[in-house]
Amino acid sequence: MSPQAKRSAAGVAFAAGLSLVGFQGALAQSEPPSPEHVREEYFDAARAGRVDLLDGLIKAGMNPNEHDPRGFTPLILAAYNGQVQAVDFLIAKGADPCATDPKGNNALMGVAFKGDSKVADRLLTEHCDVNAVNNVGQTALMMAAMFGRTDVVKLLIARGANAALKDTGGNTAAALAQQQGNPEMAALVGGG
């Protein structure tokens, strides 16, 4: 290697060393994350099903029934995003599977809307009211019927969902399915 190449290599190594020392120094001087940032990470971990992060954050003092700025609990977010392992974990840590958001929707209603029968089945083992209603009188069955979620509709009916209930607009699950142009779903829930 020529003397000039040796000097260039030494210069690059020296600069890289300084960069690393500067980076480590910056890490050592950084402030801990704000409580708002920790809360944001907590809810992001629930959405992503990051049980490892949820575990650490709960051990550090986060409440399994905490509400994010929109009123969702970690369990509602995990369920809505199909994170069944996170749902199991949060329930084991004391999360209320029947908790609602400000509009009265619970985790089961969210998964009925999304059509996730695996998470719906898991939530139904928690003995929440299968006929619980949100602020406009809609049930999980109504949401599943309205969005054509056949597997969830069958599961809810098998677990005792009442297809005759009406929302505040006077609609049954069958009427909502019919309004969506889904006569097969309307028939499945007993309306045709």
Blueprint of the fold:
Layout: H1 3-29, H2 35-48, H3 51-59, H4 74-80, H5 84-92, H6 107-114, H7 117-124, H8 140-146, H9 150-158, H10 173-179, H11 183-188
Helix pairs in contact: 2-3, 2-4, 4-5, 4-6, 6-7, 6-8, 7-9, 8-9, 8-10
Descriptive labels:
192 residues, mainly alpha, Serine Threonine Protein Phosphatase 5, Tetratricopeptide repeat, 2 domains, elongated, disordered N terminus
* Structural class designation: mainly alpha
Order of helices and strands: HHHHHHHHHHH
Output the radius of gyration: 25 Å
Q: Fraction of residues in helices?
A: 55-70%
Q: Give the end-to-end Cα distance, rounded to a whole number of Å.
A: 86 Å
The number of helical elements comes to: 11
Assign the CATH superfamily of the largest domain: Ankyrin repeat-containing domain
At a glance:
This protein has 192 residues and is mainly α.
